[in-house]
Amino acid sequence: MRDAAAMAFSSSLALPSPSPPSGTFRGRPAGRIRTGAAGRFQACFLPPPPPDVVVTRERGKNAKLIAALEKHNIQSLELPLIEHVDGPDTDRLPDVLRNDKFDWIIITSPEAAAVFLKGWKAAGSPKVRVAVVGAGTARVFDEVSQLDHQSLEVAFSPSKAMGKSLASELPRGSESTCKVLYPASAKASHEIRILCIVCIYDVFPPNAEEGLSDRGFYVTRLNTYTTVPVEDVKPLTLKLAISAPVVAVASPSALKAWLKLISKVNNWDNSIACIGETTGSAAKKLGLKSVYYPTTPGLEGWVESILEAVRVHRQLKEAPKR
To answer: Where is this region: Disordered (predicted)?
Structure first.
């Protein structure tokens, strides 16, 4: 497998440069220009400053966070910790959509939305009503809902971008039954379980989601994708990542991948900045002490949590030693 990160140095001058070492740095330039003996300009690349934060979402999904942090002069090291792969029910999704009707489709993450859209199109774009968790998840549907709003309607989002909020607030009609399709990660938490009066599983056992309630929803869960940790990280990249005062994670899976990666490092006690409460709670349960997360999940709150973690680190570093 290729290295999980590829180093790139930014410079505003378009000059030839040697191939950079591994790792992806974003933020302040790492090079300067000097004049050679013959009067020609030469590129003199200095070692980059240590990163302020490690951003760990899967490849291709860190750009917005990096850009937001750059506005605050925060140096980022991009180190994807997880990648998405097909789940056991990926191929079954189109058949389920073609052969059954649901009152709601519950989508709780951008990746679940992207995977669902592929299956929905393969099924012939049947008419569906979607409930989403979070603005980022809703945006995945923007283009298709505008082009074909009669077939796909994003009709509900809870007051707080959390699965348990959706489960307690999802509207139901006057019918005796309300059928819900829940395409999700195989590693998704069971926050949706309070919807269920009967949970239907063709692959996983019924007790995979415990705790039935009287809300009267009949839920079919399909595990349409899953996450696996990135395995290969070069020593230099890992050394840089460990030196960063803050590691930003967007899921419990990424958090566990980070802890596995640093399992042989003694006394790592820097900060974890989580995208929301679910990941933050997971971090605390795993024994991490310096955990930051916003009350409302999302990019803006996540950035604020990262900035707070960096701020605290700098204050402790600059405080006079007693």
So the answer is: 9-30
Closest to 241 in 3D by CA, of 82, 84, 81: 81
Burial class (CB in 10 A: 0-12, 13-18, 19+), 88: middle
Q: Is 171 helix (H, G, I), strand (E, B) or coil?
A: coil
Helical (H) or strand (E) element with 169 = helix 163-169
DSSP character string of 247-259: EEESSHHHHHHHH
Q: How many CB atoms lie within 10 A of CB 11?
A: 14
- Cβ contact 310:245 at 8 Å: yes
| Residue 233 in tokens | 């990280």
Q: How far apart are CA 82 and CA 97, in angstroms?
A: 29
- The answer to pTM > 0.85 is no
Which amino acid is it at 278?
Answer: T
Are 190 and 209 a contacting pair, CB within 8 Å? Answer: yes
What φ, ψ does residue 190 adopt, rounded to 5°?
-105, 30
Query: What secondary structure letter does DSSP report for 28?
Result: S
Query: Are residues 208 and 201 in contact, defined by beta-carbon separation less than 8 angstroms?
Result: yes
**Count of C-beta atoms within a 10 Å radius of residue 287:** 7
Q: Which residue has the tokens 């995979």?
A: 208
DSSP line for 95-157: HHHHH---SEEEE-SHHHHHHHHHHHHHTT---EEEEESSHHHHHHTHHHHHHSTTTEEEEE-
At residue 271, φ and ψ (nearest 5 deg) are -95, 150
Q: What is the pLDDT of residues 91-147, one digit of tens each?
A: 999 999 999 999 999 998 889 999 999 999 999 999 999 999 888 889 999 878 666
Determine phi and psi for 121, rounding to 5 degrees. -65, -40
Backbone φ/ψ region at 94: left (φ over 0), alpha (ψ -120 to 50), beta = alpha
The pair of three-digit structure tokens given for residue 293, joined into one six-digit string? 């997360």
